[in-house]
Amino acid sequence: MKKLLRTSAATALLATTALSGAHAEDVKLGILIGFTGPIESLTAAMAAGAEMAMQEVTDSGALLDGATVVPVRADTGCIDNGLATSNAERLIGEGVAGIIGGDCSGVTGAILQNVALPNGMVMISPSATSPGLTTMEDNDLFFRTAPSDAREGEVMAEILQERGVNSIALTYTNNDYGKGLADAIENSFKAIGGEVTIVTAHEDGKADYSAEMGALASAGGDLLVVAGYLDQGGLGIINAALDTGAFDTFGLPGGMIGDSLPENVGPALDGSYGQIAGSGGEGADKMSEMAEAGGFDGTSPYTPESYDAAALFMLAMQAAGSTDPAAYGPKIMEVANEPGEKIYPGELEKALGILKDGGDIDYVGASAVELIGPGESAGTYRMIEVKDGKNETIGFK
Questions:
Q1: Number of domains in the chain
Q2: 120 and 20 inside one domain
Q3: Residue 8's pLDDT is what?
Q4: Residue 250 counted as domain residue
Q5: Domain match, 38 and 105 both
């Protein structure tokens, strides 16, 4: 496994050395996500989720004997590698101790390879899902609270089969995220006997998708699966399909789930369905309540995962007694998994106290965190159907 993390003697020494310097000081955490670009409608809630965890810990006064956690926001543009890496370098220059992000898979890989690795910086992404990130060399610096699209492909294939879909046309946004997800969906659907009539890429930001729609319409299928982004190309593809009458029902993977899609498409989207990383239960319910009190939607896509990413940083720092990435990085898997007392949103102060006393925690959080070997979420999915112009949760898988 890529992340068999062990605390070496050198790491222990780093933790001891950094301990005195970490207490009662500002701890900066970067929030590096696409505040502009094709998922910008999601990122305000994602940032708010991460910042809510930071404020919870600051208010407790329990992190490293009273440290204040300070969020520092920066933009990736979601699909702009130059912007993303430049802003990652800026965050490191400003002294962040960890980076929540990136968000979209391509920029996340670019940040990891070009900035995090050379600087020894830990990243925890709440939303980068490309299977390629699982095997990318990371020196044990990269984690994610969202599951890989390899798992989402299997889940979507199961959902399509359960709904009696025998054939699909498939289009994807032309980047690492879209290609990886499309491959996973195609392979998983074919493996259970489904037919994929066509697989074709589309570009984001175009004004006209009639050429793409011509090819998709000619191939046909029971429905069109759009592995794209809800605020750009994916929206354009759906509107083109509806305008031409080529398709009237759509399969919607994670990048297409968000309130803005049904709002922008209108009633014609009713009956379309899909899935996004998410879980139910005690943690999700508590997150929703806390977010409502904080004035934002705690069920918005990747918002629970953002709270959890921030929480894992701070809990690992407490376990290590240090804000040094070399010291706390090996603690992330430990605080995320068994054994230990289960910890949910709103219980970060309790968790910090347990860790200070030398105890163990099993951070469950808002998204049922369980990190497997590559340092990524094992993954549960929230099934969505568009009803009366809104995304409705119809179950979990």
A1: 2
A2: yes
A3: 34
A4: yes
A5: yes
Indicate the pLDDT class of residue 316, thresholds 50, 70 and 90. Answer: very high
Is residue 24 very low, low, confident or very high in pLDDT (cuts 50, 70, 90)?
Answer: low
Do 19 and 135 lie in one domain? The reply is yes
165 and 229 inside one domain: yes
Contact between 99 and 30 under an 8 Å Cβ cutoff? The reply is: yes
Same domain? 132 vs 32 = yes
**Beta-strand (E) ranges in 272-358?**
273-277, 341-343
Residue-level pLDDT at 25: 82
Rounded to two decimals, what is the model's pTM? 0.91
With CA atoms as reference, report the closest residue to 346 among 369, 363, 321, 323.
363
Average pLDDT over residues 239-260: 97
Do 293 and 334 have their domain in common? yes
> What strands, in cross-sheet order, belong to the sheet with 68-75?
68-75, 26-33, 98-101, 123-125, 142-147, 376-377, 371-372
Instruction: Give the integer Cα–Cα distance in Å for 330 and 323.
Output: 12
Residues 40 and 131 in one domain: yes
Altogether, the residues listed in the chain come to a count of 397
Boundaries of domain holding 185: 150-277+383-396
User: Using one digit for the tens of pLDDT, what is the confidence trace for 108-123?
Assistant: 999 999 999 999 999 9
Give the CA distances from residue 220 to residues 156, 165, 202, 359, in Å, rounded to whole numbers and listed in that order: 19, 13, 17, 58
CA 141-4-303 angle, to 5 degrees, is 50
Smallest CA-to-CA distance from 310 within 86, 29, 2 is with: 29
CB 231: neighbour CB atoms within 10 A? Answer: 23
| pLDDT of residue 19 exceeding 70 | no
* Average pLDDT of the segment spanning 87-104: 98
Reduced to 3 states (helix: H, G, I; strand: E, B; else coil), residue 181 is helix
pLDDT > 90? residue 2: no
Residue 4 lies in a domain: no
